[in-house]
Structure formats: C-alpha cells, structure tokens
Recover the amino acids of this structure.
C-alpha cells in the first residue's frame, strides 16, 4: 500500500486512545495500555490491552467493510496502531442492544438484565461526558440540526446492519453480542463508521455468561483478567489482513 508517514501532531488524546495526524487526510489511532471506568474514577495501567484492542478493531472494521459498511479504517500498522481516514465525527454515540443490560436496565427497571429484546434497539446519545452522555429523542437530534429525518433513517439502518454483521460473526464463535456502541461521521457519500470496535465498546458473553469485555473490569475484575479476555477476542476474530505497507 506504500504508506509513508510523517511524524504526526497529536490531534486528540482520550482515555483509551491517542490520535496523531498522518498527513493526506489520514490519522494514526494508537490504543493505550490503560483501562478506565466510571468516568475515569477507576483507572489502571493495562500492558497488552492496546495491542489486543487495535488488532480486534482492525479485524472488526475489515469485517464490516467485507459486508459493505464504510468505515474509516485504512490498514493495521502493527502493535497498538491502526491507520484511519480523518473525518469530522458527529457528537453522537449510537448504541445497539440485543439484550437488556447496563444503562437500559437502569432507566427501565422492569427489564431483567440479559432479557432478550424482541428486536434490536437503536439508541442515540449525545457524546458529552459532563452531561453523562444523555439519551436523545430523535426529535432532539433533528431540532438541534444534527441530522435530518432521512439521515436518521439511514443511520438507524446502518446501525442495524452493523448489529447483524457483528452478532452473526460472534455467534459463530460461541459468543453473544449483548450491545455495542459505534460512532459515525457524516460525509457527502453517507455515514462512515469511525472510532473503534473492541472490548471497550461491545459487550460479549460466552455460553457460561462470562464477559469477555470491559464489564469484567467494571465489576471489579483484575487488569490481567481483562487483558486476557481482550486477547481471547482478538484470537477468536483472527489476525488483521490489511497490513500497512503491503
Ligand atoms: O452503559 P450502556 O449500557 O449504555 O452501554 C451500552 C454499550 O455501549 C456497551 O457495550 C458499552 O460498552 C458501550 N458504551 C461505550 N461508550 C460509552 C457508553 C457505552 O462504548 N460512552
């Protein structure tokens, strides 16, 4: 692919990733060896997590693209880095749920955790840590001018398509996809899936109900257990195929 990279300026640093400018409309996304939960109130170094999350994200983006979903992924750089296209990210978090869990059960206590939903549920949240990423009504999104009604329809279809692809992929590997979050960018050619798709953003459980995602850590599990679960996910998903420089 002949990727030449200039040492990049830091564009963004979050809790789990660093994004560096790579020139020509591209960026390097570097996954950190650290884990945080509860808005950063629990935080630990997590050696090996960055690479496991990068490999899994790379593979998940490749899988989505194989199924016709556009993503920002260009190629896997090795280690904890992937090369991506730079996009203006919408200030939204798109969550899809197949089972009731987490904040859904907190807001609707009539639902039992892990109750199978009659159909996948798509939620939009405002990406705003200070406000606790509030759940939005479709009307909120349209009135604020973030998306039009037809874009909302398109985003909902995209989210359901991503769910169908991920759900069936993990089911074939013996895991249930409870829910996940994606972020998107709006482009003249439609939405592009950006950010990451990893154990930090999906909840996946095995046949015994054991989590292989960040829930392990949220529930007080050790960092070692978490990193091992992320490695297991990366192993199950297979190695990234689009390597930079090939
Ligand atoms: O906490 P909640 O039940 O709303 O999370 C739903 C899904 O979205 C989970 O898979 C969680 O890991 C993911 N999520 C995320 N980033 C957030 C909030 C939720 O990746 N800021």
């Amino acid at each position: 692919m002949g990727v030449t990279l200039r040492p990049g300026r830091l564009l963004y640093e979050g809790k789990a990733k660093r994004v560096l400018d790579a020139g020509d409309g591209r960026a390097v996304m570097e996954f950190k060896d650290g884990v945080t939960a509860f808005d950063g109130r629990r935080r630990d170094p997590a050696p090996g997590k960055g690479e496991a999350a990068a490999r899994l994200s790379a593979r998940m983006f490749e899988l989505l693209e194989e199924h016709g979903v556009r993503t920002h992924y260009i190629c896997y750089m090795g280690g904890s880095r992937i090369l991506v296209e730079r996009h203006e990210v919408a200030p939204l978090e798109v969550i899809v749920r197949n089972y009731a869990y987490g904040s859904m059960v907190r807001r609707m206590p009539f639902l039992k955790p892990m109750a199978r939903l009659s159909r996948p549920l798509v939620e939009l949240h405002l990406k705003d840590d200070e406000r606790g990423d509030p759940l939005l009504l479709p009307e909120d999104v349209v009135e604020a001018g973030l998306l039009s009604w037809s874009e909302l329809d398109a985003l909902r279809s995209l989210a359901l398509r991503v769910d169908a692809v991920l759900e069936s992929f993990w089911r074939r590997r013996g895991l249930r996809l409870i829910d996940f979050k994606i972020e998107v960018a709006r482009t003249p050619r439609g939405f592009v899936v950006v950010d990451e798709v990893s154990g930090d953003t999906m909840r996946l459980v095995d046949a015994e109900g054991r989590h292989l995602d960040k829930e392990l850590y949220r529930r007080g599990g050790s960092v070692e257990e978490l990193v091992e679960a992320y490695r297991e996910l990366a192993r199950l998903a297979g190695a990234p195929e689009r390597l930079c420089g090939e």
Remarks:
- The CA atoms of residues 177 and 204 lie 5 Å apart.
- The pocket of cytidine-5'-monophosphate is lined by residues 93, 95, 101-104, 133, 179-181, 200-203, 214 (CB under 6 Å).
- The longest strand covers residues 176-187.
